[in-house]
Structures are given as structure tokens and as C-alpha cells.
Design a protein that fits this description.
By secondary structure, the protein is of the alpha/beta class. It has one domain: 3-Layer(aba) Sandwich (Glutaconate Coenzyme A-transferase). It contains four helices and 13 strands. Strands 4-3-2-1-5-8-10-11-12-13 form a ten-stranded mixed β-sheet. The protein has a three-stranded mixed β-sheet with strand order 7-6-9, with no helix packed on it. A hairpin with a 4-residue loop joins strand 6 and strand 7.
């Protein structure tokens, strides 16, 4: 199965030349490290940066350069800094072609829960609310099950929702799936993972069509 870097590498294969891409907190931020050769994409961070680069090496760290998750980052030549009002205007206007988000739960209708666990203190939903409301192409990067081994790909989300009917694809440590017509459609298996393992780990409706290929990472 994949680790978090493997998930990021598979998602990076979905990048297309010329895309503007927003990367959420957690696993999604790693996608910037695995851009395929020959692909020119521009990463946007909702705290006000267009042109985000990969994570810095120790000697490159600048505490003033951070992403929306407060991690230190690098910038690409020609990068631009601006206030959050401009950043969210860009998101709300549909100028971002791909959004990659982490999640605690995703369901077969494309609903996502990624901001709150009841009983735990949180500061608020943050930029995820605008991203899921405005983006047309959202990929979720997540583990297939929680620490108890329970599925996070559900028939219906149980946690407070961030967005409804908005997720198009999910990449987990076990599989690459598309969400279509109220179901998870299994497109690829993670290396060494069987279809049966994925079926067992998926609580929501799962569609399997023919032989499912193994991911090429």
C-alpha cells in the first residue's frame, strides 16, 4: 500500500500543463514535490501566494515564507504575494483548475467532512468552505481507514460536512477512485493491494468494472 508520499505522487499524475492548483493542509502539500517532468503548473495558497514551490531544504528555510498550514515553503521565479481577499476572490471566481484536500470522511455522493470532530476545539472551517463551494475539480488525499480500521469512504458522512456533492476523485493508501452517480468507482489499486482488501475497507457503494490495474507510481 501507499504511504503519504505515494498518495501525493499519484495525485501529481493528475496535474495538467498550465493548471493553477490549490493544495490543502496535510498530505496535499506534498504534491508540490512530485510535479511530472514537462508539466508547468502554478500552486496557489489561500493565505496569499501564487507560485508556491516545494518544501525547502534546511539551508533554504525562511520563516516568513509559509503556506496556509503554516509550513515553511519555497517560491518559484515570478511568484506573487497578495492579501487573502485577492486570494479568495481568485478561488471564488473559479480561477483554480484543481484543488487537492485532505479529509476525515468522504461519502459516495461526493460529500466531504474535513474540518471538525464534535467535542474537539477548532478555530473554524477556514478556506476549505470556499474551495469546496467554488472548485469543479477536487481530489481528496486521505487514508482509506481510520486508526481503528474503520472505513473513511462511507455511504453517508457522519461528521459535520464541509461541502456537498463536490468531490470528484479520491486517492488513498489503497486505491484511486472516482465518484460517479452515487458510488465509488474503483479505477486503480495501490501496489500490492488486492480488490478484496479494498472492498473490505470501503463502507460506501463500490463499483468494480473488469480487471482493476495497479497504480504506476
Amino acid at each position: 500500500m501507499l504511504d503519504k508520499h505515494g498518495i501525493a505522487k499519484r495525485i501529481a499524475q493528475e496535474l495538467e500543463d498550465g493548471y493553477y492548483v490549490n493544495l490543502g493542509i496535510g498530505i496535499p502539500t506534498l504534491v508540490a514535490n512530485y510535479i511530472p517532468k514537462g508539466i508547468d503548473v502554478t500552486f496557489q495558497s489561500e493565505n496569499g501566494l501564487l507560485g508556491m514551490g516545494p518544501f525547502p531544504k534546511a539551508e533554504e528555510v525562511d520563516a516568513d515564507l509559509i503556506n496556509a498550514g503554516k509550513q515553511t515553503i519555497t517560491t518559484m521565479p515570478g511568484s506573487v504575494f497578495f492579501d487573502s481577499a485577492y486570494s479568495f476572490a481568485m478561488i471564488r471566481a473559479g480561477k483554480v483548475q484543481l484543488t487537492v484536500l485532505g479529509a476525515m470522511e468522504v461519502d459516495q455522493n461526493g460529500d466531504i467532512a474535513n474540518w471538525k470532530i464534535p467535542g474537539k476545539m477548532v478555530k473554524g472551517m477556514g478556506g476549505a468552505m470556499d474551495l469546496v463551494a467554488s472548485a469543479e475539480n477536487i481530489i481528496v488525499a486521505m487514508m482509506h481507514t481510520n486508526k481503528k480500521g474503520e472505513s473513511k469512504l462511507l455511504e453517508k458522512c457522519t461528521l459535520p460536512l464541509t461541502g456537498v456533492n463536490c468531490i470528484t476523485k479520491v486517492v488513498t493508501n489503497l486505491a484511486f477512485l472516482e465518484i460517479k452517480n452515487g458510488a465509488f468507482v474503483l479505477k486503480e489499486r495501490a501496489p500490492g493491494v488486492s480488490v478484496e482488501e479494498i472492498k473490505t475497507a470501503t463502507q460506501g457503494k463500490l463499483i468494480i468494472e473488469g480487471d482493476v490495474p495497479e497504480m504506476r507510481i
